[in-house]
Design brief:
By secondary structure, the protein is mainly beta. The protein contains 4 helices and 24 strands. The strands form 6 sheets. Strands 15, 16, 17, 20, 21, 22 and 23 form a 7-stranded mixed beta sheet that branches. A 6-stranded mixed beta sheet has the order 1-4-3-2-8-7, covered by helices on one side. A hairpin with a 2-residue loop joins strand 3 (about 45-55) and strand 4 (about 55-60).
Length: about 350
């Protein structure tokens, strides 16, 4: 993605409240995002909401009602012929890089902006929205965690026991058995959703560890059991893996070819210091929150583990939502298991979701 500024140099100024500044028309073009403040802690970087107003970037306060009306946050249910329920995730466009702090107009700060429509310098997520070289308007993401729907298929319905103790390879096949376009969720899709959540919640700690065992609290905009640590505490993610050298391989587009990235997976120093200190930038990583380094919680950028143990290579990805462990949260990307692994690690607590293009 572009690392240049958007339009005019971002303006400095006070905090804008949506209700107090309706005349500024924040709802059009609805460019919103978050900016790093420089503060660090166990919840990762402290973020502030920003919006593009009158030719510059301003700090704003965005209420829930604002997101309720924003087109990138409308996830209407869609039900297929088999009764599987999905949330419809519309395509959005992102800019991520450094901009001057909106408070002083000078200090470089990591900034992430979202636009619901195409705009110069912004880019959509090809791993989620580009299929067979054609851009999709949306993808469909399982509203519920995947369950055994019979006939070697995965379903997405309310009130079902999530399926676990299945290998990555089999789970992937069972999702595809539903028909054309059906697939196991990918990390690109998952992070497309979570990135929007970062903007609304104004934090990287999307589900604090204290609530991950409370099922009713682990939901967002219609998606159920997000980061819920129940009988399933991790979910397989397609689209990215590590090779025999421990470097990342990732899709070039949805259901595409795994391509070599040349980027080594960050290696954890230990369970008490497995926090993302930065994010890999460039190419396929522009739309993923994958760690570039690891370090201590008090200096963490994102409060999640995102890499592999030193002795693990050639592994698939799963996201883990363990309770009482900050470093296993909503952005956790864990590369430890082979695609054929099953049993206590990870099969006993690992499931996934059905999705559709």
């Amino acid at each position: 993605m572009s690392r240049g500024y958007i339009g005019a140099t971002p303006l400095s100024g006070g905090v804008y409240n949506l209700e107090e500044h309706k005349g500024m028309n924040l709802l059009c073009p609805r460019i919103i995002g978050v900016q790093d403040t420089g503060a660090r802690g166990k919840d990762g970087a402290t973020l502030k909401q920003v919006a593009y107003i009158d030719g510059g970037l301003r700090e704003v306060t965005l209420a829930t009602a604002f997101f309720d009306a924003h087109p990138s946050y409308q996830f209407p249910d869609w039900t297929d012929a088999s009764g599987n329920v999905f949330c419809t995730i519309p395509r959005a466009y992102w800019w991520r890089g450094e901009m001057p702090d909106v408070a002083d107009g000078t200090t470089p700060r990591w900034t992430m902006l979202l636009s619901p429509v195409p705009r110069d310098g912004f880019a959509a997520n090809p791993g989620a929205f580009k299929l067979s070289d054609a851009w999709l308007a949306q993808f469909y993401f399982g509203k519920y965690r995947g369950h055994d729907a019979g006939s070697s298929k995965i379903g997405s319905k309310a009130g079902q026991l999530p399926l676990r103790s299945v290998t990555f390879d089999n789970y992937r096949t069972y999702c595809a058995n539903n028909g054309t376009g059906y697939h196991m969720q990918s990390l690109f899709e998952w992070h497309e959703i979570l990135a929007r959540m970062v903007v609304e919640k104004k934090t990287f700690q999307l589900f604090p560890e204290a609530i991950r065992t409370t099922q009713s609290a682990c939901k967002w905009r219609g998606i159920e059991d997000m980061a819920y640590h129940g009988t399933v505490s991790a979910e397989y993610m397609d689209g990215i893996r590590t090779d025999a050298s421990g470097n990342y391989e990732a899709w070039d587009q949805a259901n595409g070819t795994y391509v070599a990235t040349g980027q080594a997976a960050a290696i954890a120093a230990g369970a008490t210091s497995s926090y993302s200190q930065g994010v890999v930038g460039g190419g396929v990583f522009d739309v993923l929150f994958i760690a570039s380094t690891m370090g201590g919680g008090t200096t963490s950028f994102i409060p999640d583990y995102s890499g592999r143990p030193v002795d693990k290579v050639g592994c698939i990805c799963n996201s883990s939502f363990y309770s009482a462990q900050t470093h296993f949260g909503a952005f956790c990307s864990y590369f430890q298991y082979l695609s054929s692994s099953i049993g206590a690690s990870p099969g006993a607590g690992t499931g996934s979701r059905l999705a559709k293009w």
